[in-house]
Amino acid sequence: MGDQFEPRIVVFACNWCSYAGIDLAGTSRIRYPHNVRIVKVMCSGRVHPEMVLKALREGADGVLITGCHPGDCHYISGNYKTMRRYLLLKKLLKELGLSDRVWLEWVSASEGDRWAKIASAFVEHIRKLGPLRLKEVMEGE
Amino acid sequence: MSKKVKVALYWCASCGGCEEAIVDLAEELLRLSEVIDIVFWPVATDFKKSDVEAMPDGSIDISIINGGIRLTEHEEMVKLLRRKSKLVVAFGSCSHLGGVPGLANLFSTDEVLKYVYFESPTVVNSEGVIPREEVVVDDGRKLELPKLLRYVRSLDQVVDVDYYIPGCAPTPDVIKKSLETLLSGVLPPKGSVLGASSRSLCDECELNKTKPEKILLKDIKRVHQVRLDLSKCYLSQGVICLGPVTRGGCGTLCIKGGMPCTGCFGPLDKVVDYGARALSYIASIVDYDDEAQAEKFVEEYIVDPVGWFYRYSLPRSLVRGRYEGLRGGAHG
Amino acid sequence: MSEVRIGVYVCHCGKNIGGVINPAKVAEYASTLPNVVVARDYVYMCSSPGQSLIEEDIRKYNLNRVIVAACSPRMHEPTFQGVLKRAGLNPWLLQMVNIREHDTWVHEDTPDKAEEKAKELVAAAVARAAHLYEITTEKFPVIKSAVVIGGGIAGIRASLDLANAGIKVYLIEKKQSIGGKMAQLDKTFPTLDCSQCILTPLMVDVSRHPNIDIYAYSEVVDVSGSAGNFKVKVKLKPTYVDWSKCTGCGTCVEKCPGRAPREFDEGLGVRKAIYFEFAQAVPRRPVIDPKHCLWFTKGICRVCEKVCPVKAIDYGQEERYVELNVGAIIVAIGYELYDLSRLKEYGYGRFKNVISGLQLERLSSADGPTRGKIVRPSDGREPKTVGIVLCAGSRDEKHVRYCCRFGCAAAIKHIYYIKHAIPDAKVLVFYTDVRAFGKGYEEFYQKYRSEDNVFFIRGRPAEIFEDKDGSLIFDVYDSNTGQLINVKADLVVLEGAVVPPKDWEALRRVLKVSCDPGGFALELHPKLRPFETTSDGVFLAGAIQGPKDIPDTVAHAAAAAAAAIGFLAKGYVESVPYLAVVNDEVCSGCGLCVSVCPYDAITIEEREGRRVAKVNSIRCKGCGACAATCPSGAMQQNYFTDTQIISEVVSLAGGAK
Amino acid sequence: MSKFLLFLGCTIPTKQYAYEISVRSVLPRLGVELVEFPEAGCCGFPLKGLNKKAWIYMSARILSIASKKGLPILALCNGCDTSLRKIKDLLKHDEILREEIAKLLEDEGVKLNLNAGVYHTLEVLHDFIGVEKIKSQVRRPLNGIKIASYPGCHMLRPSDIPRPEDPVEPRKFDSVLRALGAEVGYYPDKGGCCGATILPYSAKHALLIVAAKLKTIKDYGFDGISTSCPYCMEMIDAKQDAARSEVGDESISIPAFYLTQLVGLAMGLSPKELGLNLNVSPIESILEKLGVSLYE
Known about the structure:
By secondary structure, chain C is an alpha/beta fold.
């Protein structure tokens, strides 16, 4: 197959910083790959590792969690919880042979360009890793 | 008197503890034997597979199966029993969730055999014997062994399961309750977990009320590293207790015995992935906002997250085991 | 809720969406999805016909879920929730799909992919919508008072407007007098009326107003509570003068032997160690500067204490704290001048005769260090050649990228100062562009650029060097004539860049206000809601939202005040819809949610012999941290339940089927 | 005691011996151990415009060998110092180039390694030895002598890589001079070019540049000028006569020294130990003030 692999990527974005930042990329017409699908939550602290694993299992090739920069959380400390859950989840995924399929990035409401850069980088990164097809691989006996 | 309920018992990849648990019913067994008729129980009675095959489909009322699905043989047997039975009940953590043997899903079959037959410190295997699926013995006959599957699976990942009886192993009390329900005739909705609580263990744990208002962890202690105050919530003492995420019903046996809950009763109905839930609440109460410190904490205290959070449920988790990419992973 | 009946509405947003993808196709696809009863596209969904279209459908098809695929929910969610309300539906049965900001605006060059993405996003919304349920909010009373932070022209105007509307105002000023930057100006453009003459009366009004309490020489250190009921912790810095006794007679200042550079004169003038910030200070109360006071530094003197007729001097005074309980907060802390010494090539701070525009204002002011005489700081000589550098640090990648919005007009005003004081002076203005955008600015510009010996040179000076006599030599490439000009000037004035005040970073964190790339406060919407923030009850007045000249600042401040008055007049605030909710049946009272709640909004209570979590709906701000921690799934967040999010995720991960 | 590989470059061993002589006699006395560095060739800087890769290769080679020895490099020449640091930076950020150069080096059995630190004479004096230590060693203070410090362009630029001095407000040079008791001061265009780089292409303009510079310095009442770059020294010292005749201004005549020569003088070393006999400019006036004779 000649055409390149187009990853499916689920993005969690917090309402106050990251979602706004992604909107800003829109209003500033900054291009980035179409592969990302944004799921809005009020705070990155709402993102449950369960949701991340579910996304991977159901066909996502990568998951990107975004939130306010440390110290900037609209809800005081939500992003710290996210950071800790992410660190632990990352270690778990490594043990499960799924290293580097999940990223956590801070994107503020003013960082439309930063968002675009991250989105492009992540899509490229996952494209390099190749398709995941977790369900198929783990259930195909 | 009405005719007895036909019951089959079978074990797959399990330690035998579940069988023990049934025997532990003691006098109960006698009372049971008045209402049930055991048609198949390899551990206790001499029936052969052929006997089961001979039975008409659906002629067994209840098949109670423990152990995870590890071998082609298990697959074959449970499919057979499913065909012959009205109800199939997964008995114990292994058949319910994959169980401790399910942790082998982190390793390929070769790795497993290599370890078990050569590397394990207690193994002496000078002739380098290793099970093969086929051997030709002296008189030229070909003997076959069942195939070791790449991934251990829970029972319901192989056949349709009607009910679950949780625990490693299920406590006599849970077994009793479950059987009563099954024999009562009024059956709960399909897929229910029998004999246990609908809430997490904290609900029935006496130590719950001793919890401080907020629990925040600066470090994690292993039970052998601390003198646990048995009258205080273990989690609040920095010991990982999975009570909050684990279905109650065991009567907090381990906790009463001075050990934290390790989760054998598995997740609650609303939970999608047991390990993720466990991981999330532990990470959430780690008391470091600085990334470097948090990383150090994870590095130092949570050496083997899978072993910790999926001790009984790796095969039943969203990921199920170690992913080995499109090639290699896809076949057993 | 009974059977799920979904209506899907795909907006063209004119060409914004319709120009890239085919909304009709998206709607058509939507109509094939489960539970979708009707799916339409329309050119402007937010327009009145668009809205009534949805409203009618809701009635006609008795829909109980509405999906609008259009712009960002941060833009029009409230608009369409209004539609649902009018049609008698609970507003939280609405699901927005962002196919503009997140799709057509960024994937214009791959329209087919953009359309595919739009379809997938709609599909995910349909999956999610099935799990939406009605949400009702509670109302809580607001406290009809406000804190205004910053006593510059913005804070003054906002305070007066609030106070005149009968609202109690606490005006917090970090300096010892209100007045801000405007008080330092000599004249204001383009009308050239005296800055003090129009400002000081307002300052007096503020000090006399029964509804306004001024907390001068004070800073906001912490803010807790929430919209309608904030607790604002204010630090009163020690002045070493008991202001309640002090009458402002000024004897202490007269007699004080200590000397220090006068901040108000931008370091050009000299003040005493005990001093009024400036002559017309409000409140007119002195402050001791311990760094220069002989008593504090050497343990001698105490003259002020001796001469004070009312015994107001109190060397032992310590900082005090007060807590103000208010309903709204207006941030009016203005701006700060960029540190011009960072433009090293211009030598500000190294060469005496390179000064800032504000320093020129002080030199030109009648109450300034030279009583209004414009001279060279190095030798007091009258400058005959003056260079004015525009965009000093502004619109410059190395410094700040944005425009200061008053440098040009100020420079033109500065031409006037110089030509007025020194008619035969030669003025060279080095500009990149002259942006005379305001009312009367262009006329102002035309008038003074055509004065004799005033030259506008399009180019920025290269490195500035100091000659032996203190005058300044440098080359400028004039991009109009293509000439390289060698300049020798007696005085160089830098119209410097502006930045947010240093203490803003700390303040914005306690206020939970985000900032733009320049570091200024981020407004709720750049066009429609430029004086509100993402924190309810916190409003922006003046330059803290972005550089502004006086007319714009005053307009912005009045608008902020009006918005705050509206907010307080409404009388109540609603609990957030995104509340955490507990399923008592499943909750085992493990209490982990209590551990992670940043607002202490959750408690564990005994109920028929069991322990269960209980959420306090006033305190809960709806972050969902508890829901992401709950091990049993008993704790959920309204509008963001596990099922809602996961069904959306599953749909997106799987792609459009 | 800090140890450095003494990297001379090409100009110093060919025409600016005085610099090397003074460095060898001064630094060890201030507790710096100089380790010979014979493997080092040219830094390649002059090739920059002609064959970029050759330049990068040559600097990378020096860095790699030094890294292997595990010692920092002391670059006497502004050009060498800039070149080495530029390459460090360049290769750090350009993976492809890095691999390419690594391959080239392999051919002569050198493993690419950019870890070695690079320091200029001025940094060693100011940052490693420190003005206090220097002060303590002064036996013959340069009191009443006003010296114009002239760091030289590459001491200040390009600013995208770490430079020894601040491009607009060079301070270290003057603080070392002050430590010697000398007077220092401001003069316009201190950071400007000395003209050396265009000398081969247009001697006339090169001389005009240096002439203007020397003139300003005299006008600002300096008794002497000092640098720490062999190229600058070439211009402000050896080319003074040429500059004078080029602009026909007799007043252009001022003593020029290497910084290390002045340090040595202040420490009481003899002119010979500092190679002062090799200076072309009229340095006698200053030696007299110090009561030193060139030929004792």
